[in-house]
Specification:
By secondary structure, the protein is α/β, with parallel strands linked by helices. It has helices spanning about 10-20, 40-45, 60-70, 90-95, 105-120, 130-135, 140-150, 155-165, 170-175, 180-195, 200-210; strands at about 1-5, 25-35, 50-55, 75-80, 100, 125. The protein is built from 11 helices and 6 strands. The longest helix has 14 residues, at about 180-195. The N and C termini lie far apart (about 35 Å).
Length: about 220
Amino acid sequence: MIRVVVVDDEELVRSGLRLILGTAPDIEVVGDCGGGAAVATVLAHRPDVLLLDIRMPDVDGLTVLRELHALPDAPRTAMLTTFDAEEYLGAALHAGAAGFLLKDTAPEQLVHAVRVLADGGRVLAPGVTPTVIGGYLGGRTDGDAERRVASLTDRERQVLALVGEGLSNGEIAQRLHLAHGTVKDHVSALLAKLGGLNRVQAAVLADRAGLVGPGPSPDTAP
């Protein structure tokens, strides 16, 4: 069972997310609250996934994210956002966010996103992806990104490309016909080689390095 906590300043939003996620047999919303109670609620329930509003009036989501990621076993966190909060996305990425979801995400996509997060994947709403890429890499050139991934093995670049597509470890294992544990090891190794990036940062780097997009299928690569 995937344990989820929802943090948003609007009770209506929290209730809606709880209702949607409650329809999934493998997901349980174990707590919901506003920003001021976020850290205490997470510590009390120890969720696998946290859905966190990026902008709240009492305690903003970035502050909550930084506090939680200073603790051991922090939950996989996706920021809940709207298009008018795009200026916060780069900062959230640096603080360790595992993804970004728009508040009007379709119910079936929300359920899928929680499963991907729980499995170690990342989620980026299509509408915010260009802003995330610009916010994290800023002035870095594509050449910079290519040089950074040059240190990876061929298999690690394959895995990184699929991380860039937003696939979870389980989905990557299926795509490459590898054991789940093997993929997890590859992901840990490539993140370390890239300077200790988190998964979302690595996904953005993969995009800028040209690993994501049209090209040979990883199924057929050596």
